[in-house]
Amino acid sequence: MGGEYVTLPYDSEQRNYDTSKGPIWRRFEPLSAQNARLYAPLRWQSSQAELAVAEAALEGRPDGADEEGPEQSIAQQAERDDFLDSITQTEGPIALYKQNRLSGRYRRDPRQEKTILALQELYDQLRSGIRPRRPSGLTITDHVGPTKKRAHWWQGLLGGSESERPKAPRGLYMYGGVGTGKTMLMDLFAESAPPEFQLRRTTFHDFMLDVHSRLHRMERTSDPLTLVAAQLVSEFKVLCLDEFFVTDVADATMLNRLFSQMWERGLVFIATSNRAPDGLYEKGLQRDLFVPFIERLQRETVVHDISSKVDYRRLAQHRRGLFYTRHDFEDPDAEVEAQFRALADACHEAVGPTEIKVMMGRKLPIPQACGGICMFSFMDLCGKPVAAADYIALCAHFHTLVLKGVPIFKGSNRQEGYRFLTLVDVLYEHNIRLFCSSEGLPFELFQHIMTRSQANEPKVMQGAHDDDIIDDNLGFSKERCISRLTEMQSFEYLIEHARQHSPQLMLALEQASKKGGETVAGRRN
Asked: Would I find Nuclease among this entry's keywords (predicted)?
């Protein structure tokens, strides 16, 4: 990550926060906007004009406040909140959480309240372990005499003798369903972390790509994994990984050794995941090699369940115009191709095939492209041996993807389903606009995929279909994918896409909102 990703033509720091370079909020302004977009639709921090446009597009309040009795501001309701009243801290993630609750950007959620307390406790432990510098110009030394080897960075930040220095605190592993606020809360921790934490925040996809890239560069050394572990811990001391989910056997077999060495060097690990530790890489190949990592993970982190019945992403209004199916069109593929031509006409550039560079010298062919827009068939993008690195490179070059012919997933196209999940995750993480023709709506794409527990339910067994398959990995991931596909069609998502990638789209979105626009797909690139 950071400067190490020299083979990828994109600024990876936009997705990886390193507090050793200064406070995050100064270098990554979209963070707050993204969090609020995900978890409190249309209440992110932006200009009053943009906020007015977004509010005008709403047909009703997601929280239903306008439907219940006398109107009261969210700030007034929050003032009477015992939990917020109990918060006295002026720094750390809980202080930012309180600010966002009072401003109305977050809504009350008991699970999130317990989670922010756990994150604040970890923050306080890290802060208490940092030895303050004396406000003088004198050189500070730990001792006079021969240099002693320190066990790890944490002990080097603490005062007192080595025998009095405590171990690094346990990290935090947050798991729960989609849209429960895991990422939002972890980002509050990252945003509030001082430079001394030397924190890096990234996604599991990006982290593993970075690890494999480093291993590739060090493959001629005797023990490249040990060198990579040492190199990583020299660059960051607190690692925040979003969407921790293991499906690849190569990742599964190396994680225990990699993280064990980083933990021995004092790494503090924070992660979000849809699955509890015991459910990671369930039924995977050579899982016995992965089990020691699970055991070590449970020792090195506090495992915290943030499950909630509320999916905040689905509170964003769903709007048509980006997802083309036979429910609305006789020929969805033709419709989405027409959408690509309309976008290309406004681009005023040549339309044709091209290719882009991917890591390790590979190239990804692009069937049709024009400016920041590209078009693929589903089989070209998910039916071939492509992976997250290809999709990340795609997002570095294009802000809009037109995808034709997404099928209903079943046993015969299970591997394509895995690639589609990865594609949606990467598009979502980079705020890419997606136009898509498919055989069904988002929730219909995975109707034949179920987990073992779902398959044992009597109602499911009675309605079983020949195409139904049991796949825990796909079954647990499909809800996240459906949630993200739904949000990616919302007005809120497109506003953020325009702000990040294509500001000229703002005018089209404003006009659509003024007309009560059911269609938010602007005819501009």
From this structure: no
Instruction: From residue 271, give the alpha-carbon distance in Å to each of 168, 234, 255, 419, 428.
Output: 17, 20, 14, 22, 19
Which of 57-61, 159-163, 199-203, 517-521 shows the lowest per-residue confidence on average (mean pLDDT)?
57-61
445 and 473 inside one domain: yes
As a whole number of angstroms, the distance between CA 430 and CA 188 comes to 19
Whether 344 and 477 share a structural domain? yes
Task: Examine residue 178 and state whether it is found in any structural domain, yes or no.
Answer: yes
Query: pLDDT tens for residues 326-379?
Result: 888 889 999 999 989 888 887 778 899 999 999 888 899 999 999 899 999 999
* pTM of structure: 0.58
State phi, psi for 51 to the nearest 5 degrees.
-65, -40
Domain CATH code at residue 23 = 3.40.50.300
* Residues 228 and 255 occupy one common structural domain: yes
Q: Any alpha helices (H) in 163-313, and if so which ranges?
A: 182-192, 204-217, 224-235, 249-264, 291-300
If asked whether residues 349 and 301 sit together in one domain, one would say no
Residues 244 and 352 in one domain: no
89 lies in some domain: yes
167 Cβ partners below 8 Å, 6+ apart? 154
H helix runs in 243-331, sequence order: 249-264, 291-300
User: pLDDT tens-digit profile of 293-317?
Assistant: 999 999 999 999 998 666 555 544 4
Q: Domain range for residue 356? A: 316-514
My answer on whether 115 and 11 are in the same domain is yes
8 A C-beta contact, residue 293 and residue 301:
no
Nearest in space to 371 (alpha carbons), one of 391, 393, 401? 401
Number of Cβ within a 10 Å radius of residue 331: 12
pLDDT band at 174 (very low <50, low <70, confident <90, very high): very high
Residues 405 and 378 sit within 8 Å (Cβ to Cβ): yes
Q: How many CB atoms lie within 10 A of CB 422?
A: 21
Which distant-in-sequence residues (6+ apart) come within 8 Å of 17 by Cβ?
Answer: 24, 27, 28, 31, 190, 191, 199, 200, 201, 240
The tally of CA atoms less than 13 A away on the side-chain side of residue 406 is 27
Tens of pLDDT along 444-467?
899 888 888 777 776 555 555 667
Q: Indicate if 111 and 256 belong to the same structural domain.
A: yes
Residues 6+ apart with CB under 8 A from 277: 173, 175, 294, 297, 298, 303
Look at residues 271, 305, 339 and tell me which one is the last residue of a structural domain: 305
In a domain, 324, yes or no: yes
Contact 75, 102 (CB under 8 A): yes
**Residue 457 sits in the same domain as residue 490:** yes
Any residues with CB less than 8 A from the CB of 96 and at least 6 apart, and which?
188, 191, 192
Closest CA to 370 of 401, 349, 396: 349
Number of structural domains the chain divides into: 2
Check pLDDT > 60 for residue 236.
yes
The reported pLDDT for the residue numbered 12 is 34
Is the residue at 101 inside a domain?
yes
